[in-house]
Please model this.
Amino acid sequence: MATERELEGSCVMDDDIQGLEPAAIVVFGATGDLSLRKIFPALYNLERSGVLPEETRVIGFARKDLGQDEFLAWLKQGCARFSHTKPLDESAWSRLAGRSSYFRGELDDAASFDRLARRLAERDMPTNKLFYLAVSPDQFGPTAERLAAAGLGTADRGACPDGTFRRLVVEKPYGYDRGSARALSKTLQGCFSERDIFRIDHYLGKETVQNLLYLRFANSIFEPVWNRNHIEYIEIDVLESGGIGTRGGYYDHAGAARDMLQNHLVQLLCLTAMEPPSSLRPESIREEKVKVLHAVHDYSPKEIIARSVRGQYGPGTLIDGTSSKGYRAEPKIDPDSRTETFAAVRVEVDNWRFAGVPFYLRTGKALDRQVSEIRVHFRRPPSTLFQGFCGDRLVPNMLTIRIQPDEGMWLGFNAKVPGAERISVHELRISYRESNKDYFPEAYERLIGDALAGDPTLFIRADETEEAWRLVDSIVGAWQEEGAPMEVYTAGSSGPAVPR
Model:
């Protein structure tokens, strides 16, 4: 458990991440884009920060025919290019490179996993193991099964020596619907104990997302008004200005609802609407998040059609000035595709705190903004004093929590204009990057560190992902059942209007 102490007026919560035990970190899919852009740069920054124990070893598992020098050169290029700390710290890189090795193997070859098990049993390897599945979703289950068959799983706790761990980190997308997510959990739980399975949603590793708990429950000015009596509605946006790029093969199978709504937006909904947990223990926090999903109203297909919209971008000009030929003309996309690139829905959380408060969830591609944020719209103050002068022009207070870019918070409030009998809107603003110039960790650094520490707070429990799929399945199912219209919006525009 974290301990607290007062230091220079701040409450410092000592994090166990600073006392990690050595581990062998095996990255499956080590030559993929995710590994290059996120995982290895995160490991480099953990090394640079002095977090990784000296005995830690990193093994990159992939099928490419690479030598050790080629692999390290490729890793160095990725760390130099994609790390948020620049320039590359040659000393930190040398330390990480000295602990890293390449392992050529096939995911569908049991013999490769037997060789891996023998490699991990060698004397220079730590007894703790962290297996990171940066592979295609259809390989999550089979890879876990081959790890277990090679004696590297933990479903049988006797297979893992006392005081040591073997943990499995699983990327998204986690399933295609509720049924497939449940089946995947059953497969993984047959290979690893649930407590050893860490399902990643990288949004939960972002500092501004983590701050939601601190903002709400560590400030008496917010918690008393964080309810239906004072909040009129809440908007949660994850908007992208670019198109689908080279992801056509995956995206046309998934769509905006499955790709973004099921994970990122649902997680933000949970953290915004959850009740105070009984403690900061991981399970206390995760339990309250699941309660939010249980409380989301069950809508009929016709109700979903009335409170949702789906859209698909057509030709237009993106905000960077480049032209877009439209979704159906993108590579690997069916010319008659009915896959949405924009999804929005209005939901209610049927609990005492938020009964009757609409939550508007919106996500899309090729839009006029690149932003992820939560906007809490408070009710307009009573009209006793200013109704005769201002009426509806008296702007309600709004709290904006910006997740990216320009991470920070803005609180809008009304104040008198100096020298005039007028009211104007002002803002109180905090910028996380401006106030933390020395170091601002990326999401994957925090998540990998927490997985090594065995802290599941920022990871998704099996029942949580199933409940998230329940909501998205009902939306997608209603669109298909009721034949919901597909609104075509111009690339670079604000997208379809959200039903109010």
